[in-house]
Amino acid sequence: MGIQKNLFKFSLLLSLIFMVMLGCAGTLSPTAPPATEEKHSYGPARSGETGNSPTYYDFDDVLIPPELKLDTQKSMVVSTSTFSGGVLVFNGYVDQASLIDFFLKNMAKDNWQLKGSIKYRHTVLTFEKPNKGCVITIGEKAFNTPVEIWVGILHEPSTGQLPLRQPRL
Questions:
Q1: Model-level pTM greater than 0.70?
Q2: Strand, helix or coil at 96?
Q3: Range(s) of the domain holding residue 99
Q4: % pLDDT > 90, the chain
């Protein structure tokens, strides 16, 4: 039952990210030149490595502070010809306010635009770039700060249209 609940949450959040990206798709110009973005090397830190530097994991434009440790049992990344995305789950004992500041500063450096936020018991930050959406949730528990980072990326098919399938009647 736990797996079904996690898959339902995953599907629901990916759907939310997808809808946000579709809502903004009409404002994107397919002939506009791509924004120049700095590329980063990424991938999880090697086993046993204790780095003090922020790291890019599976998404090369979402920087993670070194105090957070990846929970591979709760994380999932998917990739298809038209969509890539998933959730990375982290844990650490970090002040919630400093995490919010870290993500606001570093997401802006990676050309993400803050689109909205919710704060207090849990903080939710939503970011957007062309064909990409990101939702970061920061919780607060005794001796632990859980962080979930949901990313959705639409890949343009060769036709230049968004990957939507028309419902059959």
A1: no
A2: helix
A3: 2-26+67-154
A4: 55
